[in-house]
């Protein structure tokens, strides 16, 4: 149930990847607030294009933010990851991290082929999460030991199915 043409979906997914790189790169340079606002504006612009699904997509983004707080807050509380910028509160990662989770959740609207949440978690979440953290480490936006990537992969293998299941239910996808 996505009202977007295929070309527009691909354009959003490409823009989401570009925004990921921009947010992580600017966080590494010490800019952690205004880039998150840019990402937020991009998500709002995307929502504007979905007049029949705005509320459902907003709920999906809220679930994504909750997953971000759970995953990244836990990684920080365990001492496995240090992020550029300050934590918003104990257990709440910096705004730029939450913006990444909002972008990721919104991207699930543009990627309707993910119908099995557990396969998505294992095939996309675990390796994708670990690779994203490794890239953010290489760019300098986060500090973590490479051995912590196994924990990141496990957390993402659990968080991604929650997001895919939520997207499938909210956006009325069929198995």
| Number of H/I helices | 6
Shape: globular
Order of strands, widest sheet: 1-2
The string of secondary-structure elements, in order, is HHHEHHEH
**Level of helix content?**
over 70%
**What radius of gyration results from the CA coordinates?**
15 Å
Task: Count all strands and give the number.
Answer: 2
Count of the separate structural domains: 1
Structural class comes to mainly alpha
β-strand percent reads: under 5%
- Describe the sheet with the most strands: 2 strands, antiparallel
Mean pLDDT: 86
> What's the end-to-end separation, in Å?
13 Å
Show unreliable segments. Answer: none
Characterise this structure:
This protein is mainly alpha-helical and 175 residues long. The protein has one domain. It has six helices and two strands, in the order αααβααβα. Strands 1-2 form a two-stranded antiparallel ribbon. α1 runs antiparallel to α2 (34-48), α2 packs parallel to α4 (95-110) and α3 runs antiparallel to α6 (149-170). The longest helix has 24 residues, at 54-77. It starts with 5 loop residues before the first helix and ends in a 5-residue tail after the last helix.
């Amino acid at each position: 149930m996505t009202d977007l043409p295929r070309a527009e979906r691909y354009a959003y997914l490409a823009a989401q990847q570009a925004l990921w790189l921009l947010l992580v790169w600017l966080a590494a340079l010490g800019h952690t607030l205004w880039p998150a606002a840019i990402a937020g504006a991009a998500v709002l612009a995307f929502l504007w294009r979905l007049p029949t699904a705005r509320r459902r997509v907003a709920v999906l983004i809220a679930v994504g933010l909750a997953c971000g707080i759970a995953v990244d807050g836990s990684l920080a509380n365990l001492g496995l990851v240090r992020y550029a910028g300050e934590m918003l509160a104990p257990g709440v990662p910096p705004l730029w991290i939450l913006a990444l989770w909002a972008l990721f959740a919104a991207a699930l609207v543009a990627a309707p082929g993910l119908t099995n949440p557990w396969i998505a978690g294992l095939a996309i979440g675990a390796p994708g999460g670990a690779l994203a953290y490794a890239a953010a480490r290489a760019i300098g936006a986060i500090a973590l030991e490479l051995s912590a990537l196994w924990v990141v992969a496990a957390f993402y293998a659990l968080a991604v199915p929650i997001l895919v299941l939520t997207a499938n239910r909210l956006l009325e996808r069929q198995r």
